[in-house]
Write a sequence for this structure.
């Protein structure tokens, strides 16, 4: 019999994917130069040279059969050693190869990590705004996503509200910083307060409450902002990382789970991550890509382009009367909708070729997300459309 | 709380993976020249030229940002069109792009397909011998794997036994031909008999019973054996395909689900496959690899090497007193254990550096699987070890 839950998930695509598909259709109708697709976090900046050069080098120099062969389910041991070394060197955190599990991107990492530490009926808590697929992955793991509103007047962590929400049934808190969709980077003070809270709450609950640090945007920060490395503040941390954004290779699906060796039952958690990955059908992360990212550690695409996109949009939109916070990281602008219903606003924006994602799915109605990881020329061309849209609402 | 099921799955690796890891350890201790690792179906034959040349071409000629970008969740539309075209051309089966869902290999394809059509408590039936991970994937989908013994004195389909096992609770039958581990290819007569049985059983059950055709070994056949294309015999068929073996790229994780358009509720089944893939954390299949396999359709690695391996082993092992059927496809020899307990036999084989997988996990105790997708030189070197092992049992 057809699984109704999956039928629904496959029929009602995520709003983001729906807009992305709509954009492709619209482009074929009115020309791609008239569509300003801000829906998907699909980097427009070319991968750094190390990506294509690295692939060519691997193909030339690596044993042709071994390069494409199965690796261990956890990943190639040399790749895992390199990543552990990078974590130690860059963040000063304890890390060994045996703590690193290679995955097909951050989604696979989140699925395996949630699978490992969530049991039937437990809660996964995340502050608002949050990436909508967290709900899908938490439910697949048998859990329930509970969202907690952000601090009034911004997108900071509201430790008090989190404290009220976190009870015995809480298995994990997902923290996404730099944040999609707000661009917010949580400060060291916020992370410290969260760590203190979770230590207390874990004791009360009688079991560790894990932080799942979803960090695909770690390298995408502006104005020299510091992104605290959560394992240095809280032992029970599982980092889910992806190279999708830093290396501009989101389609290739490559990332990892790092279970901090300081976590309670770190060994068992790691094994459960492996077991979840196996059960979900992940045999190993793509082998060529494993070797590639190992050779590209520390490299990133030219994020100056995102920074100038950010400034161009911020300046123009503010001058047209839009309200938004200045994002500190990632490549999203989270803008207040010009009418109470952001879905209606998103619909009306389509008339001008503007594809903006309503904030409702991110748990923040009244906002739209603008993914500015786009060609600067498209952004420039789109400014007139943003102006017209604003004029329509102010008329 | 740690998920105990996943902890167990991650701790007790599959016997195959366990032997594979043991082999790597043993190699570092006694030298890889003294280890005859027949555990894993990791092709030793180099990928055809089109693989590495195709990757280089894509890197040179394809838009650098688009090549590595997200594709639609179902896969790149041109890739899906090419695959549908290939299915129509090669097998004469109806197929369109909208019936093809790109996946990260066969394991992901099986997980998504089973997720789509199995609901809590339903049965997934498979004839013996079978690939052990079917149980893991069926259980992840909420179902229960039921195995049905093969025809006496061989590994043919026992339609009568299947008929007794298939009831109302049966959602799907998994057919793996060429078969891992037996190397058996089911004949047209066997597939026709199965199709007739399932039509009758579907009517009795009041719902379609799907065939899931797991076909990673389709191209790996010897002596001109014909592999019937199941959608041509049975409408309610879902094909799970992988390029791992045909192109010798198992680590890259690329394959597809093809839902026959003639299947009942084909559209809904397809959508449910998409939904299951989404829920399991598959965002899209690796984008570079999608384009690559699309350019390599119909190509395959040099399987003459497998054929000569097959003949060399078959001749030698038979002369040493081992009993086995001549495999018609895949790259496995399924050999009768020389003592009643194949696990004991496998343990005793390790002394000679021989890593053989006991048949117990394949539902066929009393046999061991020998994956002969190995370097011919290793096979040659291993013959003495097989002789000694046989002598030990006959002493």
């Amino acid at each position: 019999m057809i699984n109704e839950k999956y039928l629904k998930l496959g029929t009602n695509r995520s709003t983001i994917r729906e807009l992305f598909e709509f954009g492709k259709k619209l482009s074929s109708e009115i020309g791609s130069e008239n569509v300003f697709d801000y829906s998907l976090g699909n980097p427009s900046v070319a991968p750094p040279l190390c990506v294509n050069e690295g692939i060519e080098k691997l193909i030339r120099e690596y044993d042709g059969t071994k390069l494409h062969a199965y690796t261990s389910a956890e990943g190639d041991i040399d790749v895992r050693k390199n990543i552990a070394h990078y974590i130690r060197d860059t963040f000063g955190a304890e890390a060994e190869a045996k703590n690193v599990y290679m995955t097909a991107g951050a989604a696979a990492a989140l699925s395996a990590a949630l699978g490992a530490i969530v049991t039937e009926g437990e809660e996964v808590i995340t502050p608002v705004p949050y990436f909508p697929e967290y709900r899908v992955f938490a439910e697949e793991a048998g859990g329930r996503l509970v969202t907690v509103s952000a601090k009034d007047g911004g997108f900071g962590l509201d430790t008090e509200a989190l404290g009220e929400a976190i009870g015995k049934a809480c298995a994990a808190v997902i923290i996404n910083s730099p944040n999609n969709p707000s661009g917010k980077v949580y400060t060291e003070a916020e992370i410290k307060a969260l760590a203190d809270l979770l230590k207390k709450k874990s004791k009360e609950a009688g079991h560790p409450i894990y932080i799942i640090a979803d960090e695909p945007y770690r390298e995408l920060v502006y104005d020299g902002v510091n992104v605290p490395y959560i394992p240095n503040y809280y032992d029970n941390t599982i980092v889910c990382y992806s190279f999708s954004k830093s290396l501009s290779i989101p389609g290739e699906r490559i990332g990892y789970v790092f279970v901090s060796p300081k976590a309670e039952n770190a060994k068992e958690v790691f094994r459960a991550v492996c077991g979840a990955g196996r059960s979900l059908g992940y045999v190993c992360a793509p082998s060529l890509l494993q070797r590639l990212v190992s050779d590209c550690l520390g490299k990133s695409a030219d994020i100056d382009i995102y920074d100038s996109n950010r400034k161009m949009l911020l300046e123009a939109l503010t001058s047209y009367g839009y309200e938004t916070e200045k994002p500190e990281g990632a490549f999203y602008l989270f803008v207040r909708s010009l009418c109470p219903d952001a879905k209606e606003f998103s619909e009306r924006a389509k008339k001008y070729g503007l594809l903006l994602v309503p904030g409702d799915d991110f748990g923040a109605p009244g906002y739209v997300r603008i993914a500015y990881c786009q060609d600067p020329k498209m952004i420039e061309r789109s400014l007139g459309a943003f102006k017209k849209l604003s004029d329509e609402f102010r008329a």
About this structure: Chain B touches chain A through 87 residues (CB under 8 Å). Chain B has two domains: 4-48+301-394, 70-295. DSSP finds 14 helices and twelve strands in chain B. The domain at 4-48+301-394 of chain B is CATH 3.90.1150.10 (Aspartate Aminotransferase, domain 1).
